[in-house]
Amino acid sequence: MTALTDLGVAAGVIRAAVVHVDDLGMSHAANQGGFAALAAGPATCGSVMVPCPWFPDAAARARADPSLDLGVHLTLNAEYDSYRWGPVLGAGAVPSLVDGEGYLPRTVEEVVDTADLDEVDRELRAQIDRALDAGIDVTHLDSHMGTMFHPGFYDIYLQLGRDYRLPLFVFRNPESEKTIRLEADGWPLFDGFCADSLDFEPGEGQTHNRRRIRELGRGLNYLICHAAEDGPELSAITDSA
Question: Residue 197 is part of which domain span?
Fold first, then answer.
């Protein structure tokens, strides 16, 4: 049985995709591109990075259109060389979550090596609460850079979903007892996902995404996108633009 069957999708449909815009709030460029994708229809939902500088703008856009399907992109990393952000609770409150510069670490490995689990839990709850307090009708939770899928953090991720009664981005894994229990309890799970949204040459975005869609497997897929408006800001942040 696949998630399509669970959702009552018409017989004969063998695959479908939730097109998800990650990293809303990361920058003005991400907000411009991401909300445009949501308005135009290629994207069906997205998630916001609460610790980032452009989160207030993302929250204002969300309040202006309550129909938007927006989650919280749980964030423990600030991965760019010279564009950084820290925890919403502040470095003093969660010192194990920041690097020597006072920002969230660049890599998942750094977070795993240094993070105190209680501080992880408190920081992520603060991110969800800030999104709710900002007027966002939070519909789901997912994980920036997949950090919450590390075995040391996964239980926190699952508990946040339970406590806030919010669906999580989780895909079926028949070898994971925790995932099997989620499905048995009625949680929606994805059959597959594709996160390869940035690995293409300039001007090849449409071709790249057509290939991604063609290669999706059977069932319900989670198609991750990073939509952004090209320009000096984005080019200064990342060479993946």
Answer: 3-237
